[in-house]
Amino acid sequence: MHTPIALLLELGIILAVLSLLGTVARRFALSPVPLYLLAGLALGDGGLAPVPAARDFVDTGAAIGVILLLLVLGLDFTVREFTVSLRRHRSSAVIDLVLNAAPGAVAGWLLGLDAGGILALAGATYVSSSGIVARLLGDLRRLGNRETPAVLSVLVVEDFVMAAYLPLLAVVASGGTWWQALLAVAAAMTAVTAAIAVSWRWSQHVGRILSHPDAEQVLLRVLGITLIVAALAEIIHVSAAVGAFLIGLALTGTAADRARAVLSPLRDLFAAVFFLALGLTVDPGDLLPMLPAAAALAVVTAATKVAAGWYAARREGAGRRGRLRAGTALIARGEFSVVIIGLAAPAQGRLAALVTTYVMLLAVCGPVLTRFAPTRQAAPRPPAPRDRAGGRPPHEVSAAGPLPAPPRPGSGRDAAGPD
Amino acid sequence: MDVNEVLLPGVGLRYEFVNHEGDRIGVVAQRSGDFELVVYPGDDPDEAHPILRLTSQEADTLAEILGAPRIAERFADLTREVPGLSAGQVEVRPGSPFADRALGDTRARTRTGASIVAIVRGEDVIASPGPGQTLRAGDILVVIGTREGIAGVQRIVQG
């Protein structure tokens, strides 16, 4: 087999650079997404260092990246969480949708975009980044706070709205007629309902097909089925990403836990490639003219997100500080806005530049604002380093070992039951 | 004691209770298996004061330390002391859907409330099997729980 040296070298350098950027971002408790986009800009046409040999791989990897992003997102959510969220926060979800989609739609109209462009921009300003926000709340140690369930409920509903929105966008952006779009949404909704029914009634059987003691088997089966379903979804003009999301929703319980554990590293790799690829398609020269519009849009939609979060947290009975914390937590936009542009961009060069700038602004400013939102106690401690393997002095090892044996076999240690 | 359960969509669950001294205590059980312990200053659950974070392994160790002495003392007479609690045996038959699969796959405790405390395999006894323990045809599972719970485990394991 011929080894493509240029491809290996370019890809290796790209991954090493991404790792460096990721470390820098994590150091400041920020999302690496905007840095990956910047890296893509630097590598693309008109950038500093073009990478012709790795381009094909990055393009293919980006397609897989979207599918993995949505698959793992679907794995993360359960139907119960969705129904509970919707019951408690139906009005918050409506307010969130109206307040945050409207500025995007108006901006799209002012910029003279077509229906697909307006719809895409409305979606990009509507959807917060559940990935960034959930991680941020954990890092800032706010999972115990009263406003947190409200924030997470809004995110869950947003992510489910995406399941109906993405097929709609896919059709409208490709110039389809309105009845085609409605048909696609109906098909997607039917598929969502079917996926939920399947996971509800036959979760044991679905789990049995896809679970295996061997991690390799789980990876191959889940990924294989997901790619097939994604391709089928693309054939019937429902976006491949939505097909992947459905597979994620259909998998529940232990099967979902296994799949998430096996797929997450792969998702991280290909998602990084996806953000990189989006940066590649945008000419850095187009960004600067878009900066004023993006900044204005960012300011307006940051304010509307704060209002939506304020309302949701008030429904949970949180005080003023809590409401402000909830509002600022929702500001961050990220992977989903980028996915939306990935779907709509081929037809809309200007839109991609606008949303890329917008996401870069808010993915950086959102977490910073959240961090400095008012709390009573002193600033939270930075997250402890997770990886302490090998760093443990020998005398501590015994502390991690089992306790002295209980008097009889099987007595005690109930905690090690079959869960 | 009342334990309040709060759903954290996409993240996990939070349990809240007030101890005998009036401290409001929260335990965040994350889907990843990690735990976070918080207290709420005063009576206001708005702002949690973080105490510590535990990996699932550390949480197990803590639970053992807190629960072990009591459980070890009482377990022997548990089935006699507690009305409604009993011990039973469930055989993994050759046709069982869980033969050659991990014990955790049965999700028996989650679904029935009954715990599998030991596996008898021929001459051997596997005490306190973990969720990763593979079941084999012919194993006898020792189950502790309510009568319905044990019957439920039987239904699950024998398919």
Molecular structure report:
Chain A is mainly α and 419 residues long. In chain A, 74% of the residues lie in helices and 0% in strands. Chain A contains 17 helices and no strands. Chain A has helices at residues 5-27, 33-43, 55-76, 79-110, 115-126, 130-139, 148-173, 178-201, 203-210, 215-235, 240-250, 253-281, 284-315, 320-329, 335-344, 349-371, 397-400. The N and C termini of chain A lie far apart (47 Å). Chain B has 159 residues and is α+β, with helices and mostly antiparallel strands. Chain B has helices spanning 56-81, 108-112, 147-158; strands at 4-8, 12-18, 24-30, 35-40, 49-54, 85-91, 115-121, 124-127, 140-146. In chain B, a hairpin with a 3-residue loop joins strand 1 (4-8) and strand 2. Chain B starts with a strand and ends with a helix. At the A-B interface, helix 4, helix 6, helix 7 and helix 9 of A face strand 1, strand 3, strand 4, strand 5 and helix 1 of B.
CATH topology of the largest domain in chain B: Alpha-Beta Plaits
Number of strands of chain A: 0
Rg on CA atoms of chain A, Å: 22 Å
| Largest pleated sheet of chain B | 5 strands, antiparallel
Q: Could you name the CATH class of the largest domain in chain B?
A: Alpha Beta
Architecture of the largest domain in chain B, CATH level 2?
2-Layer Sandwich
Helix content bin of chain B: 25-40%
How many individual helices of chain B?
Answer: 3
* Rounded average pLDDT of chain B: 81
What would the principal axes of the Cα set say about the shape of chain A? globular
Order of helices and strands of chain B: EEEEEHEHEEEH
Count of alpha and pi helical runs of chain A: 17
Low-pLDDT sequence parts of chain B: 69-76
Strand residue percentage of chain B:
35-45%
Q: Compute the average pLDDT of chain A.
A: 80
CATH class of chain A: Mainly Alpha
Termini Cα gap of chain B:
37 Å
The Cα radius of gyration of chain B reads 19 Å
How many discrete structural domains of chain A? 1
How much helix, percentage-wise, in residues of chain A?
over 70%
Q: Largest chain interface and its two residue counts?
A: A-B, 57 and 59 residues
GO molecular function (chain B): monoatomic cation transmembrane transporter activity
InterPro entries (chain B): AAE_transporter (IPR050144), KhtT (IPR026278), KhtT-like_N (IPR058776), RCK_C (IPR006037), RCK_C_sf (IPR036721)
Protein name (chain B): Potassium transporter TrkA
Organism (chain B): Streptomyces marianii
